[in-house]
Design the sequence.
């Protein structure tokens, strides 16, 4: 276990790593989405994050600026509902870390929390609606608990990754209440929510990428 | 001139729509499109930055109207507003009109230089010509709420405005489904402007997926023979705002609406609600009764054996007193199961074999009190564990539990769950045993969080019965490794949970709890009059009692009778059977406290999970399918006859009736009838005063008894349906097994059909029927049971005030429709989805 602060380099590694992970899981995301949505989540996210990776190569600003560029790029390139949702998440996150050179655990929590509230506002969704929030909210809760217990950031990130994956799994028995999947009503039961899967991936990638290499 | 932006997933669609619009609209109208994504916008999708740029291109002081197709187009348009400078965003209206029709109508109006409000309204009304053409019902005059069309093909439809404050949310939607389901017609619902899908009016989830808000207009269409009647009924109920009034205290108290904005509370995580009540406190990882702590078995000989033996006896005495005190407190709270558990523990504590072994170890082997006790506990535990029967071998846990308490007492380190600063402790565990729940209720724990668990386990039932706030399934919401000491708050009614809540959140929750307490007090006061439905049908609300102390509490809470007096309390905590006189005294005392109300005395119901030390009871591999209840009484007829005589004698001047547990065969019932007759004859011969004749009823707990209700009718005066066991036997799933939680729902249509059958037969024979068991007090179940025709509901004392207030709000006709729908449902989940209290 080590303790450290999250740097600009960490953020770039995280987003690049996530773009890679989305590319690797594109097919799975598409299949999950085909089961209960319109089958474009994998392709949309892949297109969006590939564009983000290119954009960040020439981005020289601080952490907040990196997040803002990511958010804006997602808004204009993803295409599906995940564009405004992930875009809003990164834009709100950017506002929450304005002027910070490095992030401690509480900064990271504040950043994700602002992003979560943005997603809730944008999607008018709550926990239990079978959305990406079902992975994100438990992850933030786990970080809060870890912070209250004065855990090292390393362990906190690991706990949040575990919570995100549990949260993702918890979408299987849920009935979708938002988006295209909600037209299926009870037939959406028994499927993982693709948004929760891509969100869990975002959190687990952070846990894997942050910290001294 | 109002500018227009067309947002679509498809560039091609947006371009085509634009050329259609250009054909009819003034060339001066500024229109931009924002559509497609990826290279050359060739792929389906929308782009918030493109929308924002398009808005800026057409912007002028008259404003901008944005029309969108679906899904992400709406989210992206909303996001675009955030990207714009505030002064521009303020002039933009996002319009829910149909994409093509709306664009044409809006462009025409904009070309006439109309105000943006008129442009918006025209766009929204753009489906009207299509409706007229297709002869569907439409809202023809601006002020009328209702238009009805019945056409020749036997389908009827109506267009109505929803006036409910929060639109077609859960309760009004459920009410709608309830009415729709009462008719044998197809009912579909759609927004009147045809935006959104056409959904079934008999499906709660589909109806709610429409997201109908206050002021929205919907079209209801019914197809089938009674379509006109169905439409009339639905129109009536919608015009009554789906029976939703501002003051509906019951549901507000028992199930606050699940919403992030309740009382300004910030959003928490959602877990499984188990037992209502608000808990705020420090988290503590609950450590279940562990194997007895190890103590050295060798020690200097300087300990005097008689001193050690006295020490042990004193510690046992003290533990016995504290268990007894806990049991009394629990009985006062009105639950039998908890007190049963403690009575069993007291029996273990006085176990001859345990004491003899400890005595030997101390006096013969010269062990200290601690070591002597440990040796005895290990001996008994080993004996239990050696039993092939899994049920009995589980008793070993109870022995260790009791042993640990004595050891703690010997070392004088009793565990406390209330911290010195008075902040309650909230216990967290993977899951709780019923014993643990009962213990912690007695210790006034603030609340229970189960990481796994379900709302149907025995522990959950117990938490509800004892009024301990509880939630389950919290694993995803928290990490068990990092919780110790953290503050947590939850609402057991909604399942909302906050880890490390802000001070303001705590204050809001405290207020909510105070309101809830106040409401409960009011309910209790309102609980005194006899229970009737809103339209006057009498439903008797009775109490399940399991001892003396709770009789008075039952009266205070508004019980109109004792539906089930569990007599096990007379038998369980002792080494010899109770005498006839002793039982007469006890029964009379309870009858006196019930002040003339009927008291239905259930004869001894042991076997299964309850064992009497003074009866030879067979070791059973499958106790719940073995010699229990009336089967056991018929094997021990002396014991049984003593009880029957006591009931007859105590009935002088009181309304005592006899209830026979778990009757399966007609032969059993005939035999019991003979025994009762014989007891009466003997008492008469002896010249002993007793009540005669006496009413005798049976508990319907087996599917066999339910299906044979007609054959049993000549021998029974009433039926009392024990839904806990009936569910367990019908669905072949042991209640305590958490893996089988989904099999433990008494609302399963199979169980409901059996209840329906018994009720039908009962009323054919001019008799009455009660439901006792957890189900009788479940808010979801009460209207269904009333609809089926059940005459009496008997429940735990604490549940009575709320149940009475629910009954007061039930309308018989609606309840009957609900019951019909429930009986036709395919699953318990479907039944729950029918009623407004299910979330």
Sequence:
């Amino acid at each position: 276990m080590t303790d450290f602060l999250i740097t600009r380099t960490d953020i770039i590694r995280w987003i690049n790593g996530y773009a890679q992970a989305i590319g690797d899981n594109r097919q799975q995301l598409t299949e999950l989405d085909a089961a209960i949505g319109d089958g474009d989540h994998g392709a949309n996210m892949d297109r969006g994050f590939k564009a983000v990776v290119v954009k960040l190569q020439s981005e020289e600003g601080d952490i907040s600026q990196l997040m803002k560029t990511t958010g804006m790029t997602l808004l204009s390139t993803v295409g599906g509902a995940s564009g405004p949702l992930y875009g809003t998440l990164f834009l709100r996150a950017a506002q929450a870390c304005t002027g910070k050179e490095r992030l401690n655990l509480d900064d990271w929590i504040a950043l994700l929390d602002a992003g979560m509230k943005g997603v809730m506002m944008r999607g008018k969704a709550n926990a239990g609606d079978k959305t990406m929030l079902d992975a994100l909210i438990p992850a933030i809760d786990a970080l809060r608990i870890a912070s209250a217990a004065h855990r090292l950031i390393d362990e906190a990130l690991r706990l949040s990754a575990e919570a995100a994956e549990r949260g993702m799994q918890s979408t299987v028995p849920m009935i979708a209440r938002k988006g295209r999947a909600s037209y299926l009503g009870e037939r959406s039961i028994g499927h993982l929510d693709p948004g929760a899967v891509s969100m869990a991936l975002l959190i687990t990638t952070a846990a894997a990428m942050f910290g001294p290499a | 001139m109002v500018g227009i932006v067309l947002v679509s997933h498809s560039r091609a669609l947006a371009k085509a729509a634009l050329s259609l619009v250009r054909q009819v609209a003034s060339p001066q109208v500024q229109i931009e499109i924002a559509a497609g994504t990826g290279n050359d916008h060739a792929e389906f999708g929308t782009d918030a930055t493109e929308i924002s740029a398009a808005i800026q291109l057409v912007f002028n002081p008259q404003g901008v109207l944005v029309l969108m197709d679906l899904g992400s187009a709406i989210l992206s348009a909303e996001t675009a507003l955030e990207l714009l400078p505030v002064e521009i965003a303020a002039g933009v209206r996002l319009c829910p009109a149909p994409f093509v029709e709306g664009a044409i109508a809006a462009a025409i109006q904009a070309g006439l230089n109309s105000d943006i409000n008129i442009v918006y309204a025209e766009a929204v009304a753009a489906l009207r010509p299509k409706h007229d053409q297709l002869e569907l019902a439409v809202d023809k005059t601006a002020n009328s709420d209702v238009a009805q069309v019945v056409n020749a093909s036997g389908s009827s439809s109506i267009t109505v405005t929803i006036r409910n404050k929060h639109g077609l949310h859960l309760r009004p939607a459920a009410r709608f489904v309830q009415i729709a389901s009462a008719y044998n017609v197809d009912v579909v619902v759609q927004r009147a402007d045809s935006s959104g899908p056409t959904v079934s009016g008999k499906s709660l989830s589909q109806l709610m997926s429409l997201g109908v808000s206050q002021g929205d207009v919907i079209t209801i269409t019914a197809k089938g023979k009674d379509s006109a009647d169905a439409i009339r009924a639905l129109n009536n109920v919608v015009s009554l705002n789906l029976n939703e009034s501002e003051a509906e205290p019951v549901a507000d108290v028992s199930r606050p609406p699940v919403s992030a904005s309740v009382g300004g509370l910030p959003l928490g995580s959602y877990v499984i609600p188990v037992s209502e009540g608000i808990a705020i406190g420090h988290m503590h990882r609950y450590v279940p009764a562990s194997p007895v702590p190890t103590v050295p078995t060798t020690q200097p000989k300087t300990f005097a054996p008689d001193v050690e033996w006295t020490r042990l006896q004193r510690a046992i005495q003290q533990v016995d007193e504290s268990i007894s005190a806990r049991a009394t407190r629990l009985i006062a709270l009105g639950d039998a199961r908890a007190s049963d558990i403690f009575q069993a523990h007291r029996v273990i504590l006085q176990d001859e074999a345990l004491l003899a072994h400890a005595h030997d170890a101390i006096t013969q082997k010269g062990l200290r009190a601690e070591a002597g006790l440990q040796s005895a506990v290990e001996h008994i535990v080993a004996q239990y564990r050696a039993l092939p029967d899994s049920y009995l071998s589980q008793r070993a846990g109870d022995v260790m539990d009791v042993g640990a308490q004595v050891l703690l007492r010997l070392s004088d380190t009793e565990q406390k769950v209330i911290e010195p600063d008075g902040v309650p402790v909230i216990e967290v565990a993977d899951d709780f045993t019923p014993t643990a729940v009962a213990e912690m209720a007695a210790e006034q724990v603030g609340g229970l969080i189960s990481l796994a668990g379900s709302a149907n386990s025995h522990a959950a039932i117990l938490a509800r019965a004892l009024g301990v706030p509880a939630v389950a399934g919290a694993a995803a919401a928290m990490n068990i490794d990092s919780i110790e000491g953290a503050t947590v708050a939850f609402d057991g009614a909604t399942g909302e949970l906050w880890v490390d809540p802000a001070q303001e959140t705590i204050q809001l929750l405290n207020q909510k709890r105070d309101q809830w307490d106040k409401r409960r007090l009011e309910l209790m006061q309102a609980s005194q009059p006899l229970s009737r439905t809103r339209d006057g049908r009498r439903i008797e609300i009775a109490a399940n009692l399991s001892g003396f102390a709770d009789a008075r509490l039952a009266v205070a809470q508004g019980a109109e009778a004792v539906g089930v007096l569990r007599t096990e309390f007379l038998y369980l905590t002792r080494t010899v059977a109770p005498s006839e006189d002793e039982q007469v005294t006890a029964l009379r005392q309870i009858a006196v406290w019930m002040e003339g109300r009927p008291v239905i005395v259930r004869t001894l119901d042991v076997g299964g999970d309850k064992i009497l030390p003074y009866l030879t009871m067979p070791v059973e591999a499958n106790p719940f399918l073995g010699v229990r209840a009336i089967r056991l009484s018929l094997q021990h007829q002396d014991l049984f006859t003593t009880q029957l005589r006591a009931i007859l004698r105590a009935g002088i001047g009181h309304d005592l009736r006899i209830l026979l547990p778990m009757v399966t065969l007609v032969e059993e019932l005939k035999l019991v009838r003979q025994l009762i007759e014989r007891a009466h004859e003997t008492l008469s011969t002896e010249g002993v005063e007793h009540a005669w004749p006496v009413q005798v009823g049976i508990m319907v707990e087996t599917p066999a008894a339910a299906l044979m209700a007609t054959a049993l009718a000549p021998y029974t005066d009433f039926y009392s349906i024990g839904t806990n066991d009936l569910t367990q036997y019908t669905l072949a799933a042991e209640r305590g097994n958490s893996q089988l939680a989904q099999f433990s729902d008494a609302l399963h249509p199979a169980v409901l059909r059996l209840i329906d059958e018994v009720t039908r037969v009962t009323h054919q024979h001019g008799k009455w029927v009660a439901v006792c068991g957890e189900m009788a007090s479940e808010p979801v179940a009460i209207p269904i049971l009333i609809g089926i025709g059940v005459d009496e509901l008997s429940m735990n004392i604490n549940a009575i005030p709320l149940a009475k207030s629910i009954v007061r709000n039930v309308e018989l006709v609606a309840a009957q429709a609900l019951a019909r729908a429930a009986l036709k449902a395919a699953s318990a989940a479907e039944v729950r989805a029918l009623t407004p209290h299910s979330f």
About this structure: Chain B touches chain A through 46 residues (CB under 8 Å). Chain B is about 45% helix and 15% strand. The radius of gyration of chain B is 33 Å. The first strand of chain B starts at residue 3 and ends at 8.
